[in-house]
Design brief:
- The protein is an all-beta fold.
- It has 7 domains: 90 residues, Immunoglobulin-like, CATH 2.60.40; 75 residues, Immunoglobulins (Immunoglobulin-like), CATH 2.60.40.10; 74 residues, Immunoglobulins (Immunoglobulin-like), CATH 2.60.40; 108 residues, Sandwich (Immunoglobulin-like), CATH 2.60.40; 156 residues, Neuraminidase, CATH 2.120.10; 68 residues, no CATH class; 88 residues, Macroglobulin (MG2) domain (Immunoglobulin-like, Sandwich).
- 3% of the residues lie in helices and 50% in strands.
- The chain is built from 4 helices and 68 strands.
- The strands form 19 sheets. A 5-stranded mixed beta sheet has the order 16-23-22-19-20. Strands 2, 3, 4 and 6 form a 4-stranded antiparallel beta sheet that branches. The protein has a 4-stranded antiparallel beta sheet with strand order 11-10-13-14, with no helix packed on it.
- Strand 47 and strand 48 form a beta hairpin.
- The longest helix is centred in the first third of the chain and has 7 residues.
- The termini are far apart.
Length: 878
Amino acid sequence: IRGNLYNNSFCNNNPVANDTIVLLDSTLTKVNLPTQVTTDANGFFKFSFNDLIFVNKNAKYTFGTQSGAVIQDTIVKTIQEWVTTSPVTLNLKKLKADFVYDTVQCFGDTLHFVNQSKYGKKSYTYLWNFGHGQTSANENPVKLLDIPGSFNIALKVTDALGCKDSIQKTINIPNPVIAQFVADTAACKDSLVNITNTSTGNQLTYLWDYGNGQTSTEHTPLIFIADTGLQTIKLTVTDNKNCVAIASQNVKIVDCISNIFGVLYENPFCGGLPVVNDTLFIIDENSYAVTNYVLTDNEGNFIFPDSVLSFLNPNTLFSFQKKSGYLLSEIPYKTISEWKAASPVILNLQKFNKEWLAEYNHIPSLQNLSTAMDLFANVYVLGYYAIDAYNERMILLKYSPSGELLWSREFGDYPNWRVRSNEMLIDNNGCVYVTAVVDFNGDFSNWDGVYLMKYTSSGTLRWMQYVNYIFEKKEFTTLEFDNLNNIVISASVSLRGVDIFTTKYDTAGTFKSYKNFNTGGNDYIRDMKTDKYGTIFLTGAVNNGSSFDILTIKYKPASNAYDFVTYNGVSGLDDYGENLAIDSLGNIYVTGRTNQNQPFVLKYNNNMTLQWTYTFNETQSFNWCFNSVKLINNALYIGALTNQSGQNGFSLIKLDLYGNLIWSRKKDVNIYWTKDYYWVLTETDLFGNIYLSGAAWNGTDHDVFTVKYLPDGTEDWTAILNYPNNEGPTDLCVSPDNNVYFTGITRVGASSDRIITAKYSQCGATAQNLRFANNNTNAENLPISEELGMNVNELHEYVNMFPNPNDGNFYFNYLLPEEEKCKFTVHDNIGKIIYEIEIKSGRNTVIINYDKFANGIYYYQVTAGSRLVKTERLVIAK
């Protein structure tokens, strides 16, 4: 018997070489023959006479292979019939992929996939695809499908001859049974542990186990635990298919007193002292006050008694709030039972506090804009207001450290005068020098001159000088003191071209000198600085007809000589200087922007030779960029901003004096307004910390944010002024005692702007320092829970002290509830009462002669009934 063995025609019908052909009887049982019959390279095989001589001649046979491959058509014949029909053609049966799997009863059941592929020629290779990126090459994989829904399970099989077959079946994974609940993390012994059962599944049954044989089958049982320590609550849920899920949670059970008690401390960064004589109340999740105020004692301790707490819903979450002054650091919300169990509760104050916010709106006016501010014990704000499209007036405001407007002064009350101001200086005597540029016709054609004015600290105009400058387009002036305290004013002036003019006056208003700078093109000034030798440094830009280049000028008045240098970043493109800084060696650092609106820094030595350039290649492109620079110790800090769509933000970079980047920080905020008074602002304090301020879009309007960075680039805190309108800062100052002030605008309606000025304090020197200075804080406007029935007058009362009296008295006015007995007391620095009077309730003013007191530091308190209304430090220095 001879013939050929081929693959099946569904695959490739190629000869099957090196396979062993076996003889099978009619029951498909192998017949043992003396010689093994193997196909050659062409699939040819032959059974010899000697192999068949002893086989039953009357029986019928068929063929198979030693490898287990099945012949496609199973035909049985006698030996003689097979000899007669030789040569015989045999084909392997087509490969068939198949598998079975476990029945899925519950979500999370482990599935065993059993391969049942057959035919073709072994051995097989497998590729399983379970969806969601899960695959396997195992013959019989085991899988956990952890997502409910329908899964298409695919199996692809390849045999030894390269033939392939695949099959796909759909498996439905049921929704899981989820055991889930929320319980108090801490509770009192034998008190109710609040439980919220959030388990999900079909037709669930519940079994709760909470120790000592206590069980329940309720959906949400009332659980009381008698044992103290860490106890476990266990929930077992079962659905209608007997699928089971288990959840557990540990609860700390303690012996509780019936009060909530703890200690109020300063922020640890600020020394962590106890906060004495401060007021706390409890609020719910809607920020409603639900208790009266409690007072901290002389060690910062506070107690909320059970007589108050018993009226509160045991399932509601609560937190704490201060009445005013420094806010608390972030406090979680817990149930009353949890707060009792957590007692003593440790509360800390924030590192900073918004002490006050003042708003100024001149009547009548369309716009009020602040342009500069300065500090000298008090706060001075410079700006202007617009009456209509042709009339604008300069405005100078003076605020006390507590935010009280002490006086305001105006200039330019003439028909069709447009008067704007943008620079201010304060000398060592507290006198204020301001510039006001004037358009005499109100026609926007040009600016006709500038006035330099001096005001005393009481607001008296001491003198005024008119400088006949005709301004080119922008109303920009710069103002500095020189080494002899003369006042230097510089501006870009239109003559035949545009030159920079510098004029100098002494503090009496006497003209000293002037100098004009013409570098061969139109020269524009942006910033000016002076050094200890009286040298004047200026930066800006020069236009020689085709493009702008950065212009830097160094002028020595003693010799009346000046040098200048220009910088052209890329030929034919524009470059602008923005700000400059001078170090102790006379090196000059200029910040600016390129035509591609990328922030950069230049360094010149004292011979005006360029030392290095640095371009801040942030990942985003800068659609427009303005920047400011501060030189602190041996480092430069540069603030910049961009409003590139989708990549808005404020950046702060720190460079060493060799142009190497030390670190960079980015504040990702949305910036849409492109007015000059939305530039990024930077300022520093005595400790080398850097402050960054700007305006950011919150989804509804713009807010003013202020960020404090430590010298290593760590963000220390961020304050956001969320006022009801669009706000933007225009100037930023830090006082020697680390109070942070900014001025800016708030936009009311489509175009009406008002001036805003705010103060943030940081880390008071003592726990009693200015805790209640702000009687307009948001905390005082908290809504009161109706069910508590608190006196609404408590939230509208105020006490204001007048600082720096000069008639031998100190004054305070107040508004206190009509029904309560009120007192004013003065304590020395160890807490002893040295003065006490009863004061009338309602609205009143009290005058106290300070001859009764020696020089020193005191603290006064105002109480209404048993409540502390205000406490504040009082310094008497005669």
